[in-house]
Amino acid sequence: xxxxxxxxxxxxxxxxxxxxxxxxxxxxxxxxxxxxxxxxDAFNAMMExxxxxxxxxFGIIPELPIGEIMGYFNLTMGxxxxxxxxxxxxxxxxxxxxxxxxxxxxxxxxxxxxRRKIIISKFxxxxxSLLIVDIVLTILSIVALTAFKGDEVVEFRNVIILLxxxxxxxxxxxxxxxxxxxxxxxxxxxxxxxMALGFGMYVVNSFGSVLSSGLFSYITxxxxxxxxxxxxxxxxxxxxxxxxxxxxxxxxxxxxxxxLKRNIASL
Amino acid sequence: MNIILHEFKSNLKSxxxxxxxxxxxxxxxxxxFDMFKNDPRINEIxxxxxxxxxxxxxxxxxxTAAGYLSLVSIYIYVPLCIFSAMLGxxxxxxxxxxxxxEYLFTLPVSRNKVIASKxxxxxxxxxxxxxxxxxxxxxxxxxxxxxxETFRTFLxxxxxxxxxxxxxxxxxxxxxxxxLKNYKKSGGITVGIVIGTxxxxxxxxxxxxxxxxxxxxPFQYFPSxxxxxxxxxxxxxxITIAIVASSFVGLFYFYKKRDLHI
Lengths: 267, 262
Description:
heterodimer, A: about 270 residues, mainly alpha, elongated, B: about 260 residues, about 75% helix, about 0% strand
């Protein structure tokens, strides 16, 4: 419990910054919706005249035109997922490697506690931090949707189902970060690693959505947790999401055993 | 000179990793372009969505290499800017992070000289990765382009635009890591600025009402659609020079007085 409390308090500032900036950005983005909602009719008329399959190849979804609140929210979520992924990877790479980087490993590992307890406490501390951001994001998404929807109808059920997948999305990135951080000798710069993972996957996904081959969509969690699918169908895309969930579970199990046996660099 | 060589060496590994992964990305994109470059339907579709592209200066002709590249160019701008931002912040703060500050600053060289050497390396690396990326694009897309002459000119302009944008983030990264008290913070803040301005840039491109915000995001200073005809807006060049110059002056000013973390 002490380690858990210490880790959460060590992340306190980071949690504060993320909780302010990510949902803050969401509200900022949503605030521009009333400015474009007028163009919805012209847009919809155009959509109907075109082959939906062809549109989908360009990331344009007929069911979710950006002139309507759900389409605009889908677009916003697509961007909001980037900082969420970076945050999660950041914690994943950071939390197990920080002692070695800051030369506090000798101090921690000579205490009369097992590594098992250390890794579990650290995991829950990171999870808590992610959940705080997710909860604030969920509440403020609903507030923003209600505030800016005008006279349009919002399917809050689908929105909630979408937002419930966000913690799993983050955990996937965190687990990959953790397993890499315990497999390599030294995480020299957490930020480089988490940017490469969080933003790299986003770039892969953007190219994948234009490239209709579908191969990319198996690689990147961004497509497994694609918000458009959830907002249209009202349930998660199980055909792809299981890949992320399998990777997550395997990574966590591997992290656990690798960490117990890790040769921890000391002074 | 010793410091310059040493810095080149210690940044070589990350430079290679960045360059190889970006090169692969550009090559993958070129295969995608290959798939639809002879399909005129693409242009019809995008004509209809013209209003979405007004903010970036209209719809480019997607069946040409230059047009296609300008549409996906945000994925050239953003990664290269992340590279520069992280390079700038790391090259200054790494002595404190690796606990080599004590060693370096007891050598008989002035702080100004150390910073000047690091600045030379940072700027060279930034320009080098920019030029190399453009050469990769030339190799990847040039083979598919029908008018190589126009494409080369476009790449020259694009390279220039990207380099100017990179310099903004490089200088911000450098000044922040000399200004902020805690050396650990600069990297995160700088990358936060890159991602934040990227998201802002997407908003500006999409929502007409957000147009005035384009002065806040460097990604809108040299939009790729304008690079096709080599149109650089004077006001943005002035803003860029002002940001870069004041950041570099700030870098020397603040670093001289910096209380190094030992």
